[in-house]
Amino acid sequence: DADGVRDGDDVMLVPLSAGPQGLIYDAEEIAPGEIDSFADLFDPAYADRTALEADYPLPAIAETALALGFDDPMSLTPEQLEQVKQKLIDSRDQFRSLWRSDADVVNLFKSNEIALADGGPGLTERIRDTGVDARWVAPVERPLSWVCGLAITSDATNVDAAYKLINWQASPEAQAIRAANGYVVTNPKAIPLAPPGARKTADPSSIDNAIAETEPPDYQEWVRAFREFQAQ
What is the largest CA-CA distance in the chain? Predict the structure, then answer.
């Protein structure tokens, strides 16, 4: 029933996976328990050893807002957005990299260029696969959360095949694969099929307390603010 999923009685998108956005750290570089807040991304102790998501403006701006103590990061006032922008600009040298893909973060950790980044449990598992002792932690401000899925466009030429793909991706068997990769599933029948160690993070209840990423009403202002930061 979330915005973008339904339009009246019509289903516009089938949600297939979700996840929380928190903090990832290298436990060989940072002691467990030392990281617990989005504010840690800005701690001078980790200067030039930190990476921040930058493939779109929302995560970085929302995380910075939470680090500044703003309780509702999806509904920032113009004054709050200005404070967030200035915090990011003032902290540009804090970040070794502004990452744009999972591969970016995996390689940054693998090459020991960073010890701290924002991200989710699924990404943490991929980093761990390279031999890095990566850990994920939910920040005290509460993690952000996202959801992804599949939809069929109005000009699709093979609708039957598209439905078959969506039905497969929503099946318990396919959803169990997503669970094994560290994601929250949208079909609860997949949870018993997931590896025992993945069932807790695969359960939708694991993100009940998260702050859902939603498009702010003034999103173009967010885009402009973020571009100013990136231009530094």
Answer: 54
Cβ contacts of 12 within 8 Å, gap of 6 or more: 4, 5, 6, 151
C-alpha distance from residue 140 to each of 63, 120, 135, 137, 143 (Å) = 12, 15, 16, 9, 8
Q: Which domains does the chain have, with CATH numbers?
A: 6-14+146-207 (no CATH), 20-143+219-230 (3.40.190.10)
53 HSE (CA, 13 A, CB side): 22
Cβ 138 vs Cβ 62: under 8 Å: no
CB 186, CB 203: distance < 8 Å? no
What pLDDT, in 10s, does the model give residues 105-143?
999 999 999 999 999 999 999 999 999 999 999 999 999
Tell me the per-residue pLDDT of 46-60, one tens digit each, with 9 for 90 and over.
999 999 999 999 999
